[in-house]
Amino acid sequence: MYQIELYRDCLAFAAFAHQKQMMPGSNLPYLLHLTEVAAEVICVMPLRPDLDSDLLVSCAVLHDVLEDTSVAFATLAEQFGRATAEGVQALSKNATLPKDAQMEDSLSRILAQPTEVAIVKMADRIVNLKEPPHYWTIDKRKSYQEEARLIHRQLKKADVYMAERLENKIIMYEKYLS
Ligand code: NI
User: Fold this and answer.
1) Distance (Å, rounded) from C-alpha 70 to C-alpha 114?
2) Residue from 128, 137, 134, 142 nearest 64 by CA
3) Phi-psi sector, 132: left (phi>0), alpha (psi -120 to 50), beta
4) 64 alpha carbon to ligand 1 midpoint, in Å?
5) 53-62 and 115-128 are packed helices; what angle lies between their axes, rounded to 10 degrees?
6) Separation of 36 CA from ligand 1 center, angstroms?
7) Mean pLDDT in residue range 108-132
8) How far is the CA of 37 from the centre of ligand 1 (A)?
9) CA of 63 relative to ligand 1 center, distance in Å
10) Would you place residue 178 in the very low, low, confident or very high pLDDT band (cuts 50, 70, 90)?
11) Which of 7, 8, 21, 81 has a CA 20 to 30 Å removed from the CA of 31?
12) How much is the pTM?
């Protein structure tokens, strides 16, 4: 399949799956989040010709379909292949675990996946470290920043450029903490 066709298939699949979902604290469609994460990984591609760009983009666009929609692992594997479905699975929290253990668990599963999956996780947090929804308390914001530090610590080896971008976003987030 030509790469552009794959990107468009992923976007159409995600647009349908997330059609009723909005960005938190906003009335913009959730698809914006997914395209922002895709934009981040597309910018890394020229720096990382060693990576599988199809896996990078498909995991970026589809990274929330298992966690946030009714799409099943088998459907994802059938449409986009096992590597993408397993990457998205690793990027999804296991809701049966206690809340404070979910990120550590996801990160350990991400580290068992190809590098592309770790890059998507860093891209996801980079785009999420923007002005938080107005209803987030200071404590919630602080723990979000702390969680971002954990992501950075665990995944920084996957890509120096993304690690540096994430580190900068963590520092910039300071302005939302008071
Ligand atoms: Ni996300």
Assistant:
1) 25
2) 128
3) beta
4) 6
5) 40
6) 9
7) 98
8) 7
9) 6
10) confident
11) 81
12) 0.96
Query: All domains of the chain, ordered by start, with CATH?
Result: 4-176 (1.10.3210.10)
Share of the chain above pLDDT 70, in %: 99
Ligand 1 centroid, distance to 34 Cα (angstroms): 7
- pLDDT of 163 > 50? The answer is yes
Calculate how far, in angstroms, residue 77's C-alpha sits from the geometric centre of ligand 1: 19
Residues with CB under 5 A from ligand 1 (ion): 124
Q: How many CB atoms lie within 10 A of CB 13?
A: 19
Q: 68 CA distance to ligand 1 centroid (A)?
A: 10
pLDDT of 2: 60
CA of 152 to the centre of ligand 1 (A): 15
Residue type, 33: H
Per-residue pLDDT tens over the stretch 37-95: 999 999 999 999 999 999 999 999 999 999 999 999 999 999 999 999 999 999 999 99
Ligand 1: distance of its center to the CA of 138 in Å?
21
With 60 as the cut, is the pLDDT of residue 1 above it?
no
Which residue type does 78 have? Answer: E
